[in-house]
Every structure is written in C-alpha cells, then in structure tokens.
Amino acid sequence: MIGLSTAAEVRAAEDVLLARTREGVLMQRAATGLAAVCLRLLGRAHGARVTALVGAGNNGGDALFAGARLAARGARVTAVLLDPDRAHPAGLAALRRAGGRVTGPEGPDGLDRADLVLDGVVGTGGRGGLRPPAAHLAARAAAGPGVTVAVDVPSGVDADTGAVDGEAFAALHTVTFGAVKPGLVVGDGRGCAGTVHLVDIGLGPHLAAPRAHQLTDADVAAHLQPPEPGDDKYSRGVVGVVAGSAVYPGAAVLCTGAALRTRPGLVRYAGTAGDGVRAAWPEAIVTDGRPSDAGRVQAWVAGPGMGTDDDARATLAEVLATDLPVVVDADALTMAAREPDLVRDRRAPTVLTPHDREFARFGVPVGADRIGAARRLAAELGAVVLLKGDATVVAGPDGTAFVNATGTAELATAGTGDVLAGILGALLATGTPPAETAAAAAAHLHGRTGQLASARGPLVASDLVRHLPGAVGLVRGSATGSLRDSGA
Which among 2, 266, 377, 412 is least surrounded, fewest beta carbons within 10 Å? Predict the structure, then answer.
C-alpha cells in the first residue's frame, strides 16, 4: 500500500528530522534524488540542455542543487530566476561553481530548445495558480520539446487536494520527496503531475500514519485468492443482485455478469429483468419475486437500471433493512438522496457509488477537494462512499480514504458503472476485507480490467465482463512477480 501524506504531515516530519541532522542535509538528499531521476529521463548528461525555473524557497533550492549536479556531469544548465533577490543563495552558488548559467525571467532564450525543464517555482506550501511571468514560462515549457519535471509538486497544484485555481505547470514527471502527496494523484493535480517518482529522504520513521492510501496490485491480489480444495459455493460468497427493468434490462445482465466473473460461489438475481439474465447467464439463480424470496445471500447490489418508482423504492428499503452489506448504485442512489435515512447508520456496511452529479443530489457538490467531500458524506451517513472519477476516491465513516491508481478514460461509457457494482458486490460477499478496502479493491480491479479491455481500441461495458477473468489473473500474478507491483 502506498501512503498519501498531507503537506502538514510532511512538514512535521521534516521538522523532526531537521532537528537531528546537519543543515542542508535534507536538501542535498532531495537534490541528489531529483538529479538521478532527471539523468534517467535524459538518458545522458553531457551536452543535454536543461532549464530550471527557480522561485524563492526550498523548491527553488532543490532545483538549483540538482542543476549543479547535472552541470557537473556535462549538462548545459540554465537557471531562470523568477525572483532573483530571493533565490536560494547556496544553491545558486553551487550552480555557478558547476558552470551553470543564470538569467532572469525576461530572457530565458534556451527554454524553447531545452531537453528537460525543471519546475522549481513553488512547493507544497503554494496556494492558487501561477502568476505572471511564471504562468507564461510554464506555458512555453509545455509547448516545447523538453521533458517537463516538477520538483515535489507541480507549481499551481494544491498538494493536499489536487485543486488547480488558475494556471499550473504541466509536468510529464513529478519527483516528490519523502511521501506521495494526495494532490499528485487526485483531481486536476493528477493530470498535472504525470508519472510520480518518490525519493526517500529519510522521513519515513517520523511521518504520522497516513489516513489515505493507494492500493497496489499485490494488495488487491490478497482479496482475490483462488478457491481452496475445501471451498464450496457458499464459502466463496453469495451475491444478491437487484438491478435492471423492462426499460434497462442490460443493467441487470452487466451487473450479474460482473459479479459472476469476479468469482463468488453463487449469484442470485431478484430483479424484474429475469428473462434477460437467464438468457445471458444460466449460471445465476433467478428469482421471480422479491429479494426476501431469493434465498441465502451474503451481500446485495441494488440500483443499476431498477428505476425509482414506488415498487423500486420498496425493494430498496427491503434490501437495506437486512443485516447484510449492500452496494447502493445508480437509481438506488437517487432514492437514497431523497431519503437519506434509508442508508444512514445501518449496522451492516453500506457502500454508495456516486459519480459527481449523483453525489450532488445528497446536498453539496463535490468541489475541488474530492477526498474531503467523500469523507464528509461518509461521516454524515455512516456509510462508505466510492466517488467515481478519473481517480476514484473511497472514504469510510472514520475518515480512512483510498485513491484509485488504475483505469482509463475509455471507461467513460454507458454500463461500466454497472460492472463496477457487480465486482464490488462479489468482493463484499466474501466478508474478508473491511467495506472501504473492498470498495478500493473493486475500483482497482475495475480499472485494470478497463486497461486490458481497451488495449486494442475503444471498449463497451460488456467487454469489461469478458476481460474480468484475465484482469483477475493479472492482478493475482503481481503477487508472484509476473506484473510490476504498482498501483499505476
């Protein structure tokens, strides 16, 4: 699991470590790691053209010291000082000793020809968008041929929320120090950060236990174990599905198929689109009655395509009245937003799976702080909230949060949410992980499946169902090294 630490948590750990080390040691560690990543990205040092955009403060110092190391290896380094009077003096001296050039913001003639551009304008304490001329230089860097590398956090990105209020530096890579910051993996910040490289500067023992995480493939593999010799269909988990209608029968087929393909022991369908489910999935047990007639179930999925009329409301209330975990998705979210007491403080786990517009029906738009928004709704309702998006956020009532690292924009198509709901129901039915971990694992597997299904072109939701067994196999394989153990 990859911990996500806020700027305040990182600063507190730095303060402890700074008190125990010689002055400048942490900056030298950061600069060494930054220079090493830049060398890997460049593929060579001698003759490479590097431009560092340097602001006041420690991020500018990191960029200057890294530039000095690259210059000492033969790179042609130019530092563009946004505020010459406040540039880090020791870093500036080191760059000059190594043969680097220094210029002001009015004359960075090499920026448009640079092989690599370093963003050391502002760091984790920055608030708001870039100001002129930094915004102009960032735009030129983005339009130029060079690899763009942010120091710690792209300038203009809120380190904690990923919010971008104005212009921001668009990095292809971000080299972050000590811990991954939430703003690098969620919201608009995710798009600005590019590939994130973590440099260890010794903060680990002094960091508070993070309250937000990203799962890796190996983490999710632990919840997708293959059947053991003593297992039967009941020990593998029984999922109940209430989905679909005469208007939207496909939702029932997709949700049921996804639950089956995630490999529970049994799936029972108790909706109003039974004929379609029987035809598509003879493996499912179809009940032509109410959920209470379905038989033994260990978790329910309710909502995809079921409608919002009185019958649908009565069915949802019946499912939520059980002492079983329930996934509340799609139409069920609309009904829950009208009557929050249906889900508030259920004793059994409840997982709400809204996208932004569905989330807003509960009273407040998501806003720029996606983790904070999910946490607030989870605490208010006593439920787990899975907030769908480019980087799906999961939050539990106690503030535990996960940010998903897998997926593809190709998932933005009809029916993929029905598939996610089925996957999540199957994981909840096993009863192994806490509900928020099951939700995060489901989002991770759903994203991996989307990546696999879209490898050769655009996907439709039924492609996800077909590719689920392959995605489960790939994620399981990571635990033994056949797939890189990474969330990304």
Answer: 412
**Nearest alpha carbon to residue 424 among 240, 249, 287:** 240
What is the three-class DSSP state of 260?
helix
User: Is residue 166 annotated as involved in ligand binding?
Assistant: no
Question: Residue 90 — very low, low, confident or very high, per pLDDT cuts 50/70/90?
Answer: very high
Residues 159-173: tens digit of each pLDDT: 999 999 999 999 999
Give the whole-angstrom CA distance, residue 356 versus residue 358.
6
**341: annotated binding-site residue?**
no
> What was the pLDDT predicted at 140?
93
DSSP 233: T
Asked if residue 119 belongs to a known ligand binding site, the reply is yes
Helical ranges in 187-330 per DSSP H: 187-193, 217-221, 249-261, 274-280, 310-320
Q: What sign has the CA pseudo-torsion 7, 199, 133, 89?
A: positive
Task: Read off the tokens for 70.
Answer: 């690259």
Tokens at residue 183, please? 């703003």
Domains of the chain in sequence order: 2-210 (3.40.50.10260), 217-478 (3.40.1190.20)
Q: Is 484 exposed, middle or buried, given 0-12, 13-18 or 19+ CB atoms closer than 10 A? A: exposed
HSE (side-chain half, CA atoms, 13 Å) at 479: 14
Rounded to whole angstroms, how far apart are CA atoms 383 and 100? 56
381, pLDDT greater than 50: yes
Q: List strand residue ranges (DSSP E) for 73-191, in order.
A: 76-81, 101-103, 116-120, 147-151, 173-177
Is 350 part of any known ligand binding site?
no
**390 is annotated as contributing to ligand binding:** yes
All residues at 6 or more sequence positions from 404 whose CB lies less than 8 Å from its CB, including other chains: 214, 215, 391, 392, 393, 394, 440, 443, 444, 447, 487
Compute CA 280 distance to the chain's CA centroid, rounded to the nearest angstrom: 33
Residue 141, pLDDT > 80, answer: yes
Alpha helices in 265-349 (DSSP H): 274-280, 310-320, 331-338
Pairing of strands 76-81, 49-54: parallel
Does residue 244 have a known ligand-binding role? Answer: no
Q: What percent of the chain has pLDDT over 70?
A: 97
